[in-house]
Amino acid sequence: MRPTTWLPWAALAVLVVGIVAFLVWPDGGERSVNARTRALAEEIRCPECQGLSAATSSAPTARAIRVDIRDQVEAGRSDAEIRQSMVDRYGESILLKPEGGGIGLLVWGLPVVGLVVGAAGLAFALWRWRAQPARRATDADERLVDAARHE
Amino acid sequence: MRHPLRWAALGVGVLVAVLAVVLALQVGDGERQTQPRSELLGDPAPDFALTTLDGEAVSLASLRGKAVIVNFWNSWCIPCRQEEPALIEFQRRHVAEEDVVLLGIVRDDTEGAAREAVDERGIEWPMAMDTGSRAALDFGTRGQPETFAISPDGVIVGNQIGESSIANLEEMLAAARGQR
Q1: Positive or negative: CA dihedral B46, B49, B51, B55
Q2: Would B158 disulfide with which of A3, A40, A134, B149, CB 3.0-4.6 Å?
Q3: Residues 6+ apart with CB under 8 A from B4
């Protein structure tokens, strides 16, 4: 296979892998109390608002949630423990992001499955397209075109 | 494989059918609720240590052994105001019973506004200030008013999100007393 054939594909693959790695790679280093509090509050739904997170709402419960998250962060609790403390009081619906199990797994997994199936379908279509023999003009075709041009 | 497109279509069809079944099972999982209820029903009530408008310390631990009705309230809240006649009637009926306590908790209000409302509206049950809405958060409240019934051994046995009627309050008291 000539490099001009596979090089663009290899470059595209490297680009896609690089973007995915950048998006999913965990943040390095330890985050500050403020950053963790903010990030967790953004994942928690304000219980008395419509569609706002505890980070963005000024409702009393949202303020109390932010204070509670900060207290828990300072007490050394993990993000998962803090999320669970909210779920214990309000149920799963308090989380703006679905959890990684049960129906949440479906919500997270479906886009990935869709992406993989779509990519496989595209690759299959491209393969079939390339596998088709190139069409060449027959002598009869050439004569027909010549005749048309000289009319 | 002679007909790959047919196999692909069949695969997609099977996948959609499986997803539909899974979603239907998830949606139908658990008790259907026409009204939201606290996640804490059946759990030990979170303890609190608050100070009433009269300056007295009140904690859930200090009320152990009694049926406790806790009402989260604010002076500025219209549904709270609409609920007040039921609470006043409930307090009138049970004020003489030593095993029953009605406790108001001010979720998010100034002490001055709460005190003025209590004086003006004939509220005679103890009203405690919840500074920072800490108790409101621990009880998992979703607004105001919200009422909880706590059994003498400290378990949440009843909950009303929004305005309570006298019938709601009596029902919750019966639950707290283990009569339901």
Answers
A1: positive
A2: B149
A3: A124
Q: Kindly report the pTM of this predicted structure.
A: 0.68
Cα separation, A24 vs A1, in Å, equals 33
Q: Which domain holds residue A25?
A: 3-97
Domain B49-176 has CATH 3.10.20.600: no
Q: Which residues of B touch A61 (CB under 8 A)?
A: 133, 136-137, 141-143
B112: exposed, middle or buried (C-beta count within 10 Å: 0-12, 13-18, 19+)? exposed
What is the distance between the terminal CA atoms of chain A, rounded to a whole angstrom? 44
Chosen from A103, A105, A128, A129 to mutate, greatest number of chain B CBs within 10 A: A103
- pLDDT score of A1 more than 90: no
Residues with pLDDT less than 50, chain B? 30-33
The answer to whether the beta carbons of residues A50 and B123 sit under 8 Å apart is no
> How far are the Cα atoms of A110, A124, A128, B9, B22 from residue B5, in angstroms, in the given order?
22, 10, 12, 6, 26
Does B133 contact A110 at a Cβ distance shorter than 8 Å? Answer: no
Claim to verify: residue A67 and residue A118 sit in the same structural domain = no
Token pair listed for A81: 């423990």
